[in-house]
Design brief:
alpha/beta, binds zinc ion, 18 helices, Rossmann fold, eight-stranded mixed beta sheet, 18 strands, Oxidized Rhodanese, domain 1
């Protein structure tokens, strides 16, 4: 019998860009075997060296996680749809009305469209006014979320960030404008939110969120809105929320797809119940590498704000226990069940994690660096060294493993383009084209090329990684090229 397997964006480079593949089989295991037989490069993304399904990939049949069915032995029936859901780089009533502040005449006027909603009304608006929400990050997700939270009158909005506004942020981070480029995101956010609604208090925390400061910071808020862009911070936010019993309005985005849920509510699941372990560093490209549709964080961040408002009101139905998936390219929303895992080390019946841990170590990332630890163990070359080799007409073959649209923006002269996803199938081409010359591999910043060097070396092909990628080349060697 035939079944459809839905392929998420991060894995489409390994399925010839197809978003759905029809396969045959009796069980989920058969269907996935048929899929990975057809697309062999996909296998290492789904299975570890031990042949077991990777922990950062979840498989669903319709809206059920196979971990709660018969795992890979789950029998399929006609019409079943299998979804592969990898982790991507995105309540209880919390305030007592009695303690909530009264509304001023100006606030009654401002929030009149809320006050006439029976579900919100004056009592609900007072709860929002008493509410304290912490946005982790003032970027793509934090922008729409903070704007709406301020607009609707959430009394205190905290923001944690330590970045400055870059011109490439403006395509999606709508808190900031062109005049803010170079300013701290916190200052820019404070100005914009205060201009929108001077009734709300903005608390800024100019710091990186760490295991040392997260608990103290979160303690002062009712709801935490996770707008982070990396796995180390995402697990840190989750664990701190579970430890403190604070609901976590979660969102994540990649290219055209987003996820949203609510974690760490009483009796509800946490992020670790969904994804027990992070993917290895560099396995999932970041938005800086993979790109993101400008409006996508607008949709997901607004959903996070919606969930936050309901958590503060203590009313409505939140996404706790459900994972909402949004595909902007095909304009599809889907919903999957997420259960609290009794074996979860964080929120399960026998918790083994009772305090915050070292999240850089847990995620295998070096602190305050985007470069995975493993990258340091492969041969590297600086852009100056490469320039000297090219100028001296030394025999060097430069391989660019970015995507064709990136190659179109800028390129190092004389390079050969083979996107990383195609490399396993085109290894022979590399050896032939290099023709004995030494091979230097580059991408945008050095992450994908490090993986490419690893793949080449596995096949016995020596190569080195260009440190800092084409961005370093532009900074140091050729500033006339456009940066992206
Ligand atoms: Zn959990």
């Amino acid at each position: 019998m035939g079944y459809r397997v839905l392929i998420p964006t991060p894995l489409r480079p390994y399925t010839d860009q197809q978003d759905a593949v029809d396969v045959e089989g009796q069980t989920v295991g058969d269907a996935l075997a048929a899929l990975t037989d057809r697309y062999t490069a996909l296998r290492r993304h789904l299975y570890g060296d031990d042949g077991k399904m990777r922990h950062f990939v979840n498989v669903y049949v319709n809206d059920d996680d196979i971990r709660y069915l018969d795992r890979e032995a789950t029998t399929l029936k006609a019409g079943d749809v299998i979804s592969i859901i990898p982790s991507v780089a995105g309540g209880a009533p919390v305030t007592e009305t009695a303690a909530s502040p009264e509304l001023t005449h100006a606030e009654v006027h401002r929030y009149s469209r809320h006050l006439i909603l029976p579900e919100v009304g004056p009592d609900g608006q007072r709860r929002l006014k008493a509410g304290r929400v912490l946005c982790v990050g003032a970027g793509g997700l934090g922008s729409p979320a903070a704007l709406y939270l301020a607009a609707v009158g959430v009394g205190t909005i905290g923001i944690v960030d330590f970045d400055a506004v870059d011109v490439s942020n403006l395509q999606r981070q709508i808190l900031h404008s062109s005049a803010d480029v170079g300013r701290s995101k916190l200052e820019s956010a404070r100005d914009r939110l205060s201009a929108l609604n001077p009734e709300v208090k903005i608390e800024t925390h100019e710091t990186a969120l760490t295991s040392a400061n997260a608990l103290a910071l979160f303690r002062g808020y009712d709801v935490i809105l996770d707008g982070t862009d990396n796995f180390a911070t995402r697990y840190l936010v989750n664990d701190a929320c579970v430890l403190l019993g604070k609901p976590n309005a979660y969102g994540s985005i990649f290219r055209f797809e987003g996820q949203a849920s609510v974690f760490a509510t009483e009796g509800g699941p946490c992020y670790r119940c969904l994804y027990p372990e992070p993917p290895p560093p560099g396995f999932v490209p970041s938005c800086a590498e993979g790109g993101v549709l400008g409006v996508l964080p607008g949709v997901i961040g607004t959903i996070q704000a919606t969930e936050t408002i309901k958590l503060l009101l203590g009313a409505g139905t939140t996404l706790a226990g459900r994972l909402l998936l949004y595909d902007a390219w095909h304009m599809r929303f889907r919903e999957l069940k997420v259960r609290r895992d009794p074996a979860c080390p964080m929120c399960g019946d026998n918790r083994t994690i009772r305090e915050l841990i070292d999240y850089d170590q847990f995620c295998g990332t070096a602190p305050s660096s985007a470069v995975p630890v493993a990258v340091t163990s492969i041969p590297a070359m600086t852009v100056d060294e490469l320039k000297r080799l090219i100028d001296a007409e030394s025999p060097v073959f430069v391989l660019d493993v970015r995507e064709p649209q990136e190659f179109q923006i800028c390129r190092i002269p004389g390079t050969t383009l083979i996107p990383l996803g195609q490399l396993p199938a085109r290894m022979a081409e590399v050896s032939t084209a290099a023709a004995g010359r030494s091979i230097v591999v580059h991408c945008k910043m050095g992450g994908r090329s490090a993986k490419a060097v690893g793949l080449l070396r596995e096949r016995g092909i020596e190569a080195s990684n260009l440190t800092g990628g084409i961005l370093a080349w532009i900074d140091t060697i050729d500033p006339t090229l456009p940066k992206y």
